[in-house]
Amino acid sequence: MAHAETTTGGTTTRPGRRAQAPAPAPDVFGPRTHLVAKWALPVLLGLIYGWWAAANRRHGTEITGWNLLFGWLTVLVFVVLYAVVRAVAARLRREQHALLWAVFTGCAVGFLINQSGRSVLQSAGISVAVAAGVFLTLFYRYYTHEDGPGRRVP
Asked: Tell me, what DSSP letter sits at residue 23?
């Protein structure tokens, strides 16, 4: 006697059996590509961030050696902190994972705003608002893509 199978949205079920989850999408990039992207992204973001911080700090005046040094030091600090946050956040539960990235993003935005000459209260307010948005977005993403201990759900 043959079993009647039904297909709905890519899952196949047989009467009396649970639906099987669809297979995860294949990874089209190799390990070398992932390694390059793992380090290229923070360096690229750091270069943009350092240039932006240096531009905010000089307030439209000429570029000086101190301004260049400040920009390069900002790049270095950003890249190192990004790598540390990425390494630590991967080991945390979803709530702490989202909170760590939100704090990093809020501090980064607050520092940029502070370099433009705005008040500390204004830069703190904007950075808290940005951090809250990042936290809510990442918490939702991690909540829908991970189980309680933080393992990815296919």
From this structure: P
d(CA 153, CA 45): 28
Give the integer Cα–Cα distance in Å for 146 and 152.
4
Give me the sign of the Cα torsion angle 104, 105, 106, 110.
Answer: positive
Task: Give the three-class secondary structure for 125.
Answer: helix
Predicted confidence at residue 17, as pLDDT, reads 61
Range with the lowest mean pLDDT among 4-18, 56-70, 119-133? 4-18
Q: Is 61 helix (H, G, I), strand (E, B) or coil?
A: coil
Residue 80, φ and ψ in degrees, nearest 5 = -65, -45
Please write the tens of the pLDDT for every residue from 68-116: 999 999 999 999 999 999 999 988 888 899 999 999 999 999 999 999 9
φ, ψ of residue 97 in degrees (nearest 5): -60, -50
CB 109 within 8 A of CB 68: no
Q: Is the pLDDT of residue 11 over 90?
A: no
Q: Report the run of H or E that residue 90 belongs to, with start and end.
A: none
Q: Mark out the alpha helices in 1-154 (DSSP H runs).
A: 31-58, 65-89, 94-115, 120-145
Neighbours of 148 (CB within 10 A): 8
